[in-house]
Batch of 2 targets.
Target 1
Amino acid sequence: MTPKKNEIVTLEITDIGSGGEGIGRADGFTLFVKGAVVGDVIEVRVLKAKKTYGYAKIERLLRPSANRVESVCPVAGRCGGCQLQQMSYEAQLCWKERKVKECLERIGGVEFEANRVVLPIMGMDEPFAYRNKAQFPVGKDKDGRIVTGFYAGHSHALIPSDFCAIQAPVNEVICRTVCNHMERYRIAPYDEETHTGLVRYILTRIGAATGEVLVCLIVNGKSLPRAEVLAERLKTAVGMFCCGETGNASGNEKTCDEANKADESGNRSCGKSEGEVKAGLTLKGVCLNVNCEITNVILGAEIIPVWGDTYITDYIGEVAYRISPLSFYQVNPKQTKVLYRKALEFAGLTGNEIVWDLYCGIGTISLFLAAKAKRVYGVEIVPQAIEDAKENAVRNGITNAEFFVGAAEDVLPAKYRESGGSMRADVIVVDPPRKGCDERLLQTIVNMKPQRVVYVSCDPATLARDVKYLAGNGYTLVKAQPVDMFPMTEHVETVVLMSRRTK
Ligand code: SAH
């Protein structure tokens, strides 16, 4: 029987949808319930009802699931960032591993034993405060105060909050310092509806291995009133945060290294509260990013320096990377190392191989593999990222890596055609965005006949689709390694090894 909108229904959650929402059935009718955990018995209110399924929200928890835990964030249910905080981390990992298996079986349609091919997921020991990049929308709360916060799921409604359990704690201090500066100099936050106001977002990037911090304000304009004053205040605030102080900035400019030496025991001293951050924190730069468009896209193209550098440096393993606000860089540094090591292992390099790294970003995987390969070629669509990649190669003294700007599905086929089909690759690595690889690219990969394809994926469904294509064109799925890059969220990363079948 189809329930009506606003009807109260009692159900047990028996499954999880692909977006992490709980699924329960009442009289054969399927309801999707945000924030519900498998095993919960709940009373829900129906929000929307179609013919055979609908959406509902939790009204009352009658019997909580054994896998239900208290959310760490006060705004967990409303903020759109984390979908799984109410589920124990163990249960999250189980679900993610199962999701990868199910996609490969159902969509991949490959005949294999999923349990043998899909390796146990690699999770984190401490699944909080892992992110090295944050983007906070700036707005006003109901009392008209300038605040930062997070968007509610699937909307641009601002939920004010200083705290985020998966972000670096220093961001709280940075956001507060920017908001105070805006109040003091009467700088208006950007208003999407009227396209007025100045400050749209605060973006921060932190180098986990170096402790370098970059603050970038995304503005609907070309300048920020008294920007140099803000930079000074941010320097002080980051320094004081490291000393374990959170009070008013008072000109204390101790760097984090000094702070760590001075205070071995403080809970908030760097290296303890920052998860992976080993060094102390130092503000490396403050900059503006110009975005005057009416758009949902966060960043514009132009960066204006205010103070210091417009990039930070970070290390993954031995390789140093320059990261600017515009370039893609994996957000979970600890797990990135795990992921890249797997990619390297799957690539099976001996030093003689020609490797193509498609969707290479700032050359992270390319340079990570370069030491073990004869030559690495990277392809990436964002020109700034390729500039960073080239710079990164020089900086690390890597001379066997070359980079090309363009869409992978244009560049690789064109180069292969130009070579008259003689261009060779032993290993091809792909790391596409969620939509997966374009078929033109997959076709060229098949034509080039590399021994191994290493597929790094952030979406098991499109991964499975592309695995199916490759499996139908001479490749065998050898191994799939899920890695939890995004604890508390619905997302899961997978590295897959596909090997060319010999007749
Ligand atoms: N391998 C890198 C980046 C992966 S993210 C890393 O681990 O850091 C995916 C990258 O693909 C992004 O940098 C994005 O800009 C790029 N991209 C998106 N579409 C593309 C396309 N059609 N061709 C090439 N690169 C593309």
Target 2
Amino acid sequence: MSYKAEFQYSMDDPEGFWKDKANALSWYKFPENILSQDEQGIYHWFEDGEMNTAYMALDYHVEQGRGDQTALIYDSPVTESKKQLTYLELRDEVAKTAGMLKALGVEKGDRVIIYMPMILESVIAMLAVARLGAIHSVVFGGFAPPELAIRIDDAQPKVIMSASCGIEVSKIIEYKPLLDKAIELASHKPESLIMLQRPQARASLIEGRDYDWHILMAKVQPADCVPVKGSDPLYILYTSGTTGKPKGVVRENGGHAVAMNYSMQAIYDIDVGDVFWAASDIGWVVGHSYIVYAPLLRGCTSVIFEGKPIMTPNAGAFWRVCADYQVKTLFTAPTAFRAIKKEDPDGDLFKKYDLSKLSTIFSAGERLDPPTQEWLMEKSGKPVIDHWWQTETGWGITANLRGIESMPIKLGSSTVPSPGFNVQILNDSSEQLEANQQGYIMIKQPLPPSCLTSIWGDADKFTETYLSTFPGYYASGDGGYIDEEGYVFVMGRIDDVINIAGHRLSTGEMEEVIGGHHSVAECAVFARNDDLKGQIPMGLVVLKAGEDIHNDTLNSELVQLIRNTIGPIACYKETHIIQRLPKTRSGKILRKTLRQMVNGEEYIVPSTIDDPVIMDEIEDVLKSAKVINL
Ligand code: COA
Ligand code: AMP
């Protein structure tokens, strides 16, 4: 079938289309309600189906005779260790780990927070929670205790699963002090904490609350899969919004499983037994979808890499892994390619390895800039495909559907809408724009399977944030255009969310933290372009009257404050003290104008500015700090 025909089928008969795709999975009871709406008008897929995601991803394959096939490959240059698990071994480990959680009282619908590095046990933990019909919420290891505390209070986990440390190249990050601090800060107290002791750092355990993972495992019985409804949540994953409070994206079991399995075939052209590697982290949506669930649902082999694209030990790390394990498809973020390009501009390390099995390289997390895309295609000789994603959707909204029909690659475009996504470009009056005109990227409802159906604990916020801009549409928060051939160009966020090394962070949240410093009256945080990480934040600060603090001192205090409150991944490093912030007459800070100024773009000062002289004052400060050229 051509892409056009496949896409059209998904538009003309969404229920028929997705029912077909659902047939590829093994349900306990196949759904009768393929698409339904609840009292609030929210769409749900496969609501009355009965299933278990971990069963579909593991037990089913064992039953099909794939028990001896490798399910997971763990490769850890930072610990110099490697390990592989077959489907049978993984199923048994997951069943025992589920037994351990069950022994601690975890039942269907309970939440379990997983705060772990890139090791096999993290994937096992996620699947074990799913096996019990409980709901996991994985928190990325680079978040600081207050961020973890916010998630503990919101998700209210019965149990937290963790490891004694993560390893950042050669730096050991001890997790236990961070966890203890987070639990102290949170109002909700989990009943138990299960700690995997790694040899690089041993955590001290609190009697009565903390348990040693291996000691508990030695005593437990494996647990069976617990059937859930298609519309029961599989996980909550928090993502930054425009405010200080992250949003808990709720993903339902049924739609997720169907979309994951379909996308492996349709987008990535991956079949049973192929090796797929998403070089991301299980703390992000790409990790949930394409390190854990999609490859296993499809019966493939997935790689878990505890390392970086560079420094572990060099910029050939990705190519070494691809060659060692015969990876067919590699998927990572543009920042990783830029890091490799910087270290190995001529692609010499690429040539060292036999990459004949590698067929395609996929990129997402931020727009793949054309120079990096061209460089990688030239050096690798492989198609390099950008596809556009969000935590909210769980899979590519636009992509080059290699398993259906390979489309010509256009630099700077994430290609065409995936089946099920009715992508439209609208203007302020909700009118559809013509080809090549930039506007808001909106998706007409119903969204296809796997997309979020709520914000955890705040259904109104879901409607307000995503569904109320233009009735009948989901607001992606991104701006861009569609060309005359239907190719989508995503040009960036239209809100105050920024993208640092493929990680989504909120400038509003950083402003809240900086505003809490005793010398600061007010501030603006916005993104500066960065050759490696795409964007990095910088802050302009107005001091309280009478405060006298040197710029360098204030900067180091704020850097530390952001690291301790949000985490090192915010990459906040730059502050400049100014006299006044530019605002409109109604008091709105002109962040966009500031961003254009520091990035050397042409900017027009809006006529609504309350005092145009302020921009000249700021320009002078930034010129003398060499942020902008003279
Ligand atoms: N736990 C604790 N700290 C972490 C962490 C984790 N899981 N991940 C990152 N950090 C820390 C880093 O150690 C660093 O701390 P530092 O300021 O003390 O040095 C900081 O957070 C920033 O990390 P990072 O953005 O990874 O920058 P880097 O300079 O260490 O590495 C790259 C640069 C390009 C190699 C790295 O950003 C990278 O691998 N990017 C790929 C991104 C990706 O996979 N995105 C997923 C979306 S698909
Ligand atoms: P996250 O939810 O953290 O994955 O971030 C999603 C956001 O990252 C999107 O809303 C976009 O702003 C950006 N993004 C992800 N992939 C792409 C892409 N291929 N092109 C452009 N922007 C992207």
